[in-house]
Design a protein that fits this description.
Bound molecules: zinc ion
Shape: elongated
Number of domains: 2
Number of helices: 3
Strand content: 5-15%
Largest sheet: 2 strands, antiparallel
């Protein structure tokens, strides 16, 4: 891939900020513009940027209870 596309890809479509690292870009999206790609814990409402983190959170903090009935 060429550099131009690289930077274009890392430019926020919503606010125009640019990011040199894809991680920063992702993080920015999560923090500022996403309601889609955030997984929130149904037990405590904490938000996670990926499913694995949410799963491990649930394991650690909420594994003792299964389902509220
Ligand atoms: Zn933005
Ligand atoms: Zn939780």
């Amino acid at each position: 891939m060429d550099l131009f596309n690289f930077f274009k890809r890392h430019r926020c479509q919503n606010c125009g900020r640019r990011f040199h690292k894809v991680e920063n870009y992702m993080h920015h999206q999560m923090l500022y513009h996403s309601d889609k790609n955030i997984y929130d814990c149904s037990n405590c409402g904490l938000k996670f940027t990926d499913m694995d983190k949410l799963k491990s959170h649930i394991k650690i903090y909420h594994s003792y209870k299964k389902e509220k009935s």
